[in-house]
Amino acid sequence: MKNIITIVSLLLIAGAMSCKKDKNFSKNHLNFSTDSLLFDTVFTTVGSTTKRFKIYNKNNFKLNIDEVELMGGASSPFRINLDGLPGDEFTNIEIPGNDSLFCFVEVTLDVNAQTYPVVISDSVRFLTNGVNQYLHLDVWGQDAYFHAPDPGSFFTLVGDHIEPWSNDKPHVLYGLVAVDKNQTLTIPAGTRVYGHKNSQLRIYEGNLNILGELGNEVVFQGDRLESFYDDVAGQWGG
After folding, report:
1. φ, ψ for residue 10 (rounded to 5)?
2. Under DSSP, is residue 237 helix (H, G, I), strand (E, B) or coil?
3. Residues 116/170, Cβ–Cβ less than 8 Å
4. What is the pTM of this model?
5. How far apart are CA 147 and CA 238, in angstroms?
6. CA 205 to CA 238: how far, in whole Å?
7. Quick one: what percent of the chain has pLDDT higher than 90?
8. CA separation, residue 62 to residues 125, 168, 227 (Å)
9. For residue 141, how many C-alpha atoms fall within 13 Å in the half-sphere facing its CB?
10. Which of 4, 61, 143, 223 could form a disulfide with 194 if both were Cys (CB 3.0 to 4.6 A apart)?
11. Would you call 219 exposed, middle or buried from its count of C-beta atoms within 10 A (0-12, 13-18, 19+)?
């Protein structure tokens, strides 16, 4: 009889502990620092800067996120990193009471065969206490003409007799891009030229004709198009 009483007592204590443990988790949902992330225009094949958002538990008790999923999966152009862990699916992520997690997002786009920017979208799904919440991801993608040295080469040559330039898509410079002796590079009105980090456009006894006009200018700038870089000096060689 004494053994039976002891077993019953232990079961009651275990049940009480189990109930107490359940109560330590909040039944509420998540809050986010934003409901969507928008990336400014990103050139195809060129990775974006890293953006981030915060996931908040504004409750006194812990929250358990049952599932986190990048809806486009492994085929998505977006990449996420949840509090230091890369992947496209996560389960049973705990956030202590009145605490938060960071989620970092990057994107790299494939060539889209379009001369104008297109928008690509995805989302991140959070399942908490039976409720799905979504954070939306959007990026403007732009194809471009890329001028870069071949592997093992120090520079690439451009010019009207080598590769005439058009203004239907932007031109992106990588490394040293040169107009050689007796060559002419004509850049028509409305062309946008973007220099990648440390890139340079050099004229070696050749000619450079820039045909910009009022209202249809030729623009030279760095290839980071996020507003943060609007006034940052030294983004490309010159």
Report:
1. -65, -40
2. coil
3. no
4. 0.71
5. 15
6. 17
7. 55
8. 19, 54, 37
9. 21
10. 223
11. exposed
* CB burial string 46-62: b at 16+ within 10 A, e below: bebeebebebebebeee
Other Cβ atoms less than 10 A from the Cβ of 156: the count is 18
| Nearest one of 126, 120, 125 to 29, comparing CA atoms | 126
How does residue 25 score in pLDDT terms, banded at 50, 70 and 90?
Answer: low
Average pLDDT (202-210) is: 91
Q: Is residue 142 over pLDDT 80? A: yes
- Encoding tokens for residue 173? 């410079």
C-alpha 167: how far from chain center: 27
- By the 8 A CB rule, do 111 and 45 touch? yes
Q: What is the DSSP letter of 74?
A: G
Res 14 pLDDT > 80:
no
Report yes or no: 67 and 127 within 8 Å, Cβ to Cβ.
yes
Give the per-residue pLDDT at 23.
Answer: 53
